[in-house]
Amino acid sequence: MKLSLDYNREESFGNRIVTLVKCYVASLVVKGFSVFTIRFLDSFIFNGKMPLMREKAKISEFYSLEISLLLVIIIIPILEEIAFRGWLTKSKQVVAFSLYATLIYFLQTFIVLVSDFGIKISLLDKVFIFSIFSIVTIYFLYSKIERLAHHIYNNLRSSIIISISLFSFIHIFNYPSPNWSLSNLVALLIILAPHAATGFIYSYIRIKNGLIWSVVLHILNNSIVLIPVLLLNKRI
To answer: Are the beta carbons of 108 and 127 closer than 8 angstroms?
Structure first.
């Protein structure tokens, strides 16, 4: 299977729907394997102490069910597709905007992680951090965008691998921090494998059909997996 950023924008809507359906079925298989894997690890390695979706459960604790569904099913998929696959394109402007979103996404994740360790960051401090970070990032992207866009275009395979790796890594924070023994590290890698597989599927449809289609696929996946989780969490 050969992927290229020179994909045909004139491909029929029907063919794109067929690609979407195929990718959706593939992603459902991955999700099913993911649930089985996590259940197995939860029972035999973590002794029943591993929450299935740590971050998503937290969202439903702080917001109403309606806001939680909007965030998890609409907002987060859009943000993640822009951050992790938006820059798989030839457009320098889109590459610059998407890479900026990627860096902001990781900065926000880092701030949330720091707060989990009891370090409080005030709103004013956050504004200052994001402002300085944005200035430095925009200057860097402005000066390097030609080279970055050229590298992505000419090294698509490595760009996809980077995209999948970043997408998988960010999902580490969906799970509780394990004891850093060898067995737990191996278990964590196994848990992240379905995210990597899903990331490849998203990357494939993003390059073949366009970004809006990977967003739609991501929304469909989150809907079928996370709606029951959020509803159950609210009932409990």
So the answer is: no
